[in-house]
Amino acid sequence: MFNKASGASAFLTDAPILWQNALINFLYIMYFAVEKKAFLWYNTCIYVIKDRESLVFSDIFFLYVFLPLFLICYFAARNTKLKNAVLIVFSLFFYAWGEPVWVGLLIFSSVFDFLNGRFIDKHKDEKIAVLGVIVSCAVNLSILGVFKYSGMIVDGINTLLSLSLPVPDFHLPIGISFYTFQSITYVVDVYRKKARAQKNYFGYLLYLSMFFQLVAGPIVRYNTVAREIENRSVKIHEFSDGILASASANSARASRIS
């Protein structure tokens, strides 16, 4: 059912078949989403209007609306800069779907460590460059600590000292651990000269906010994707294989739900 091209000549020969397979694999995802009744379309519409939660890859809205629109816009873009713009817009929308307020925190982290990277790059081979690493670690870990552990700390103080201090009840921003540590690794790698500082802010924002890894990880080192941010190409057989892998993962999830 699924053909795989091997080598340049086979790729060119089988290109029409590969596009068919990509479409079949995409429909495969649709089938399992509906067949296993993970969500009902009616309930999804009510959910979209009334009670938005964070988007996940198995949502009907993601599969039938967000993903097709993203793919259309992405492949309609003629160059890498436009493709990056599409990725950023859809990534921020994806992140803001359940909690729009925390987009500000994500953008703050991206601006803060983009500037830290530029500072370190400007003062490379100088002792003052380490200040960028120290400030980045201090601020990022402090923000993470406030959201993840402030309630536990205040509750412990109340218990030990018999106080009644108000316990913070922050709703943990989606993916904050992933993008916080990913941002720190970028600054550290620039300082250690294992990565070049990104000169374009939007390139760094893309690195930090890509929706397909922001929510569930893994943490990606900047040097791993630096070249692809600036220049990349999409191969049809890789696109087809990616959709098949996604379909398999969604079918397994749907089977567990049912």
3D structure, described in words:
- This protein has 258 residues and is mainly alpha-helical.
- The chain is 71% helix and 0% strand.
- It contains twelve helices and no strands.
- Helix 6 crosses helix 9.
- The longest helix is centred in the middle third of the chain and has 32 residues.
- The N terminus is likely disordered.
Question: What is this structure, in a nutshell?
Answer:
The chain is mainly α and 258 residues long.
Helix-strand layout with pairing:
Blueprint: H1 7-13, H2 15-35, H3 41-49, H4 60-76, H5 80-96, H6 103-122, H7 130-161, H8 176-191, H9 201-209, H10 211-214, H11 222-230, H12 236-257
Shape from CA axes? flat
- Provide the β-strand percentage band: under 5%
- Indicate the structural class: mainly alpha
Largest sheet: none
The count of DSSP E runs of length 2 or more, i.e. the number of strands, is 0
Helical fraction: over 70%
Give start-end ranges of low-pLDDT stretches.
1-15, 33-51
How many alpha or pi helices? 12
Taking Cα atoms only, what radius of gyration do you get, to the nearest Å? Answer: 22 Å
- The N- and C-terminal alpha carbons lie at a distance of 26 Å
Mean pLDDT: 78
Structure keywords:
258 residues; mainly alpha; 71% helix; flat
